[in-house]
Write a structure and sequence with these properties.
mainly beta; 6 strands; globular; OB fold (Dihydrolipoamide Acetyltransferase, E2P); 153 residues
């Protein structure tokens, strides 16, 4: 098992690297679509390659938990641009090209064992910026009442 960090390259999906994903246990995470060479690297380090028959094709999920077992916070993974400058806070969207540095580690829990990867850093080499507001206004469509609206009660 490698005790040195590993770097893979690919196209990212579902990147929670600027802000952690808090849907369940808070984690920084990224799915990386793998070509054959990067798939071999991942498999050689004992990680599971997934394929859910969607846009990701063969991919691996690399994560870092926000909290340690002792309750203290872990540092966020580094996020850099193509010239190794600190990231400007833009959200990284699906389809961005990235290099991902991780540290493989073995684990055992409740009679099971495996290998996972701790997300150390992400270098964004080609950004597809995520924009939460990709929709245009729809004339005559439904709108949410605001304080300035007349509320009938």
């Amino acid at each position: 098992m490698a005790t040195q960090p590993v770097i893979i390259s690919g196209t990212c999906h579902y990147a929670s690297i600027v802000e952690p994903n808090t849907t369940f246990e808070p984690v920084w995470s990224i799915d990386v679509t793998l070509d054959d060479a990067n798939k071999a690297i991942v498999e050689n380090h004992g990680l599971t390659v997934k394929n859910k028959d969607d846009d990701r094709g063969n991919f691996v999920t690399i994560k870092r938990k926000v909290m340690k077992k002792d309750g203290s916070k872990r540092p966020a993974p580094s996020v850099l641009d193509s010239q190794n400058n600190s990231w400007d806070g833009k959200l990284v969207g699906n389809g961005s090209k990235v290099n991902v540095k991780f540290l493989p580690y073995e684990w055992q829990y409740a009679g099971k064992a495996g290998t996972s990867a701790d997300l150390l850093a992400v270098q964004v080499t080609d950004l597809v910026e995520y924009n939460k507001e990709d929709f245009e206004a729809v004339d005559g469509g439904y709108t949410v009442a605001t304080e300035k609206d007349d509320i009938p009660f």
